[in-house]
Amino acid sequence: MAGGGGGLELPERQRRGKKFSKRKKKKRIGFRIDMTPMVDIVFLLLTFFMYTTTMVTPQVMEISVPKEVEENVEVNQANLLTLYVRGDGKLFFSMGSDDPQPIEYSQLRAKAVELNLLRKNKLITAFKPSPDAPYGAIVQVLDILNQAEAEIVRQLQAEGLKRERKFAFVKLSPEEVDKLKGL
Amino acid sequence: MPKIKKKRLGFVIDMTPMVDVTFLLLTFFMFTAKFKTEAEAEQKFVIKRPYASADTSKLPDKDIAIIKVGIDTLTGDTSYYYTIVNEIQRRQVYESMNLTSEQRKPQVKIGLDLLDQLIMQTRITGPRTRFAIDADRRVRYKWIEDAIDVLRKNNATAFNFVTEKRQ
Questions:
Q1: Which residue among B136, B152, B161 places its CB closest to the CB of A61?
Q2: DSSP H or E run through B116
């Protein structure tokens, strides 16, 4: 710092030699403080706070499930889109009572938009994740469906329709588990 | 031959602007720093949250109960953990239940049956309390499915999945 070299200077008394002036000269125009230690500490604190700060705040995805009901709801098979996630994270889909077909995660969005627009508000999406599937894959599917939803709402609005989303989590039956294993 | 000797004993740089900026940064980071809660400081797992696209909805910091599904870093065991963020409510819930002193911590490691009781008591003491499931993306869906079933049983049909923004 500016005052860093202060230690090298000789003390006032020695510089003047043995002569002592009787007149006290008190001249203090602009004094300097050695700021080095302070700056050291400031940098230390700064690095500490910079390293400990996490900039990402967790966000949330809102999920609604229906209340527990005893009776089964009759569903028209033709309007039913079923999505499966197998234990290894592979994604499958089927329309109605068709056999599940594999589909890539990247294609799901376009598929969901296409099918929903074809059947307007009649399409019911059932999501059947395998209990062994990684949670990350389930959230990914939900995220893709949410993205597709925005597109569907926009397209239906252009046609003057109000979107009614029909989506449900459904438990995978043992027969379906076996069927998916064979694919 | 005369040699020109350049003497540069100690030169001075004006560091004032740098120090100004440094202080500014320091104050910024100090004010934005959010320290871990008591519960987070004690936990022996790090949750790798599932990725989702950017969303504006953030995790509320009050009136919330969090069901965590974490993988212990040492043993690799998956387990449920339960936290009620509101301290007053937490005390009320704990007092209404028969818990061991070990379980009276801000974040308790629990099984499904105890989770059911805790959620029920949370619903009684604070009907407005919202629930969030904060699970590791590597855990099997079975864990989440069971937690959702418990929530449904207690009529908590709207809840949140805690996610992380995909970069």
A1: B161
A2: helix B112-125
ipTM for the assembly: 0.77
**CB proximity list for A117: less than 8 A, separation 6 or greater:** A152, A155, A156
CA distances from A138 to A43, A68, A124, A142 (A): 44, 22, 18, 6
CB distance from A33 to chain B under 8 Å?
no
Q: What domains, with CATH codes, occur in chain A?
A: 78-181 (3.30.420.270)
Q: Closest residue of A to B134, CA-based?
A: A60
CA distance A23 to chain B (A): 33
pLDDT (tens digit per residue) in B118-149: 899 999 888 888 999 999 988 999 999 999 99
Instruction: Calculate how close chain A gets to B148, using CA atoms only, in Å.
Output: 8
Q: Kindly give, in sequence order, each residue whose CB lies less than 8 Å from that of residue A91, ignoring residues fewer than 6 positions away.
A: A83, A84, A85, A102, A103, A104, A105, A108, A137, A141
Confidence label for B1 from pLDDT (cuts 50, 70 and 90): low
